Amino acid sequence: MITRTSISAVVAVTALLALAGCGSSSEGTEKRELTVFAAASLTDTFTELAEQFEKEHPGVKVTTSFGGSSDLVAQIEDGAPADVFASADTKNMDKLGDLATDPQDFASNTLEIATPPGNPAEIGGFQDLAKAGTKVVVCAAEVPCGSATAEMEKKTGVDIEPVSEEQSVSDVLAKVTSGDADAGLVYVTDVTAAGGTVTGVEFAESDEVVNTYPISALDGADDADLAQEFVDLVRSESGQKVLSDAGFGQP
User: Fold this and answer.
1) Where found (predicted)?
2) CA torsion, points 161, 205, 91, 88, in degrees to nearest 10?
3) pLDDT at 6
4) 137 vs 157: CA distance, rounded Å
């Protein structure tokens, strides 16, 4: 005979099992966050890779922060909560010293001239950037693209007098697309990503200065294993394809 007492007991047990099941489900999808600092020239590719990483790691939220490599290094040194750092050159990665646990090269890039659509100033090569009256924008010397520009000037003997020096390639592109400059020096990948908003002008000497990109999990990362898994994704076959499709070269 089924009594009210036995029914109540069954209901109570069922409720407890349901609560236990909810608890297990919650633990299985525990929310975690990974913060990735990356050079501005990696904006499109790392946004795509972050989305891929989230799909492969349910419950993980990847927060990305893009900017000039030197600015990002300064933020990390000041204690910004970053777990992974990807630099547009080895020099800025080296500044972090032991804060970068195991830097590994994952891509390379070269310079290209970006002009407003149609190239109204008729820039034909690197030497044209020194023509009188030409408004040229470059990256500041401490930024990887600025350092590459300075090295290119030394190799070619061309002395550029820019109208402004910016803190990232995205800032240089903004000056070009707004019409404030006749030309800007950025990376090949930036011209590709900009699409029809700029016209790219290749120059023969570009292969003489190649920037190598390193990436590293950072000391003090909230989840060191998770940070390393993101590094591994970037260097994996699928990660390298995303970078290659965007115009990056092999490290």
Assistant:
1) Cell membrane
2) 90
3) 47
4) 18
Query: CATH classification of 109-208 is 3.40.190.10, yes or no?
Result: yes
pTM of the model: 0.85
pLDDT digit string, tens, across residues 202-237: 999 999 999 999 999 999 999 999 999 999 999 999
Which tokens hold the place of 71?
């600015």
Q: What is the pLDDT of residue 29?
A: 60
Binding positions = 41, 69, 169, 187
One-letter amino acid identity for 101?
Answer: T
- Copy the structure tokens of residue 221: 């990362």
Q: Are 227 and 217 in contact (CB under 8 A)?
A: yes
Mean pLDDT of the chain: 91
* Residues tagged in the binding site annotation for molybdate: 41, 69, 169, 187
CA distance 142 to 246: 25
Per-residue model confidence as pLDDT tens digits over 131-180 = 999 999 999 999 999 999 999 999 999 999 999 999 999 999 999 999 99
Contact 96, 85 (CB under 8 A): yes
Give mean pLDDT, residues 71-80. Answer: 97
Q: Which fold has domain 32-108+213-245?
A: D-Maltodextrin-Binding Protein; domain 2 (3.40.190)
In the chain, which segments carry CATH 3.40.190.10? 32-108+213-245, 109-208
Main-chain phi, psi angles of 115, to 5 degrees = -125, 165
State how far the Cα of 251 lies from the Cα of 105, in Å rounded to an integer. 6
Q: What single DSSP character describes residue 8? A: H
- The runs of H, that is alpha helices, within the chain are 4-28, 43-56, 69-77, 90-95, 144-156, 169-177, 188-194, 224-235, 237-245
